[in-house]
Design goal:
The structure is a single chain. By secondary structure, the protein is an alpha/beta fold. The chain is 41% helix and 16% strand. The chain is built from 13 helices and 15 strands. The protein has a seven-stranded mixed sheet with strand order 2-10-9-8-7-3-4, with helices on both faces. Helix 4 links the parallel strand 3 and strand 4. Helix 1 packs antiparallel against helix 10, helix 3 runs parallel beside helix 4 and helix 3 packs across helix 9. The longest helix is centred in the C-terminal third of the chain and has 25 residues. 50% of the residues are buried.
């Protein structure tokens, strides 16, 4: 490999949300990576720093071009310049969209288990999170369309938040699934905010399908949130985009982002995104191979060493979704026990809504040696947990 993903980086004492833990603890919970950013991005930031002036910044033409070319060449989707709006992050964009596209006490549909911050964006804006639980059969996830249609057809439902690819289950939604979601949303006059921040973190040889690319109906109802931050580990630079093809919907979202003051870049937001999308392709491809090797190691280890526990097959994200339904208690109890007993800090599936009560989420975006340490702790902790129960 050209790039080094094996050497651990000491993140303690660096104001890291993830690593603000006790000395003996190993955090494998929040979704950021333990790798340094691509050198091409760091070089771009160094040049910007060397300029020495950090006044108010504007969104550059290079920023628009970088998104357009990346989605055209990498994902086969043509984005028009006017569809793009800068924002400081995907979560701020989702919260702004909820505020603007709903009124208090309306329903926002989500497919659970799903990224837990969706609940915050909905509830904090006075709306109701209407959960449509995914079907889980033989270790695979799918949409329960009868349930989804029932909830989209409710006159109080005005918005749906889609996770594409799906966090935490690692599912890449296929074209037919997305097309059906678009048909139902259009039929019942529901806008769809599609969070596609994990789209570049797919298994080597696998590609995701942009929701807005599937059909005219999908395009007309779509508000797509995209960013280089998850794939290139630059979330702290606060740089993202919202893509809205429909002009009326786009105006509403543009007003929302500007009203909430999340539509202006800092001094590093545009140059980091441009560097990622124009120079980061080789680094990303090596990262994907490395992370999905960690996933293979983890799935094999769990299968061979932790009886009764099952790693769900996933083709996207660096997050491993682990079925612990055969164990006593629930995921919240198990997570607390693992942290206390072994220092392993993972996420309880119950945080992600209905259907997650007996699962764990484990972040595999770390050096292989760290991944193996986490697996060893998981095994020892679960064995001890079963022994005490």
């Amino acid at each position: 490999m050209k790039y080094d993903f094996d050497t651990p980086v000491n993140r303690r004492g660096t104001d890291s949300v993830k690593w603000d833990v006790k000395e003996n603890e190993l955090p494998m919970w929040v979704a950021d990576m333990d790798f340094t950013a691509a050198p091409e991005i760091r070089d771009s930031l160094k040049r910007r720093i060397d300029h020495g002036v950090f006044g108010y910044a504007d969104v550059t033409q290079q920023w628009y071009d970088a998104y357009i070319v990346w989605w055209r060449d990498r994902h086969g989707f043509t984005i028009e310049r006017e569809w793009l709006i800068f924002c400081t992050g995907v979560v701020p964009a989702i919260s702004s969209a909820v505020r603007k596209l709903t009124t208090p006490n309306e329903n926002v549909v989500i497919l659970t288990p799903v990224y837990n911050i969706f609940f915050n964006s909905i509830i904090n804006n006075g709306c109701r999170a209407l959960e449509s639980p995914l079907k889980y059969e033989n270790g695979e996830y799918g949409v329960d369309f009868a349930d989804l249609e029932n909830k989209l057809s409710d006159p109080q439902t005005t918005l749906m938040i889609l996770c594409n690819p799906h966090n935490p289950v690692g599912k890449i939604w296929d074209k037919s699934t997305l097309e059906r979601i678009g048909e139902l949303a259009k039929k019942y006059h529901v806008a769809v905010v599609s969070d596609e921040i994990h789209c570049d973190l797919t298994a080597p040889g696998k590609e995701y399908v942009p929701f807005a690319s599937v059909s005219e109906q999908c395009r007309e109802v779509s508000v797509t949130c995209i960013a280089p931050t998850k794939a290139f580990n630059i979330a702290g630079l606060q740089t993202a985009a919202v893509c809205v093809p429909d002009p009326v919907l786009r105006h509403k979202v543009w007003r929302a982002l500007n009203t909430d003051e999340v539509a202006e870049p800092n001094s590093f937001a545009c140059c980091a995104a441009v560097a990622a999308f124009t120079s980061g392709s080789e680094w990303l491809d090596e990262l994907r191979a490395y992370v999905f090797n960690n996933r293979k190691i983890s799935c094999d280890y769990i299968k061979n060493n932790i009886p009764g526990v099952f790693a769900v097959h996933g083709e996207a994200t660096y997050l491993l979704w682990i079925d612990v339904s055969s164990l006593p208690g629930d995921s919240e109890d198990l997570v607390g026990y693992l942290r206390k007993k072994t220092g392993l800090y993972v996420s309880a599936g119950s945080h992600y809504g209905k259907g997650g009560e007996h699962f764990l989420r484990m972040n595999l975006a770390c050096p292989e040696s760290v991944c193996r340490d986490g697996l060893r702790r998981l095994k020892e902790g679960i064995e001890s947990y079963i022994g005490e129960k």
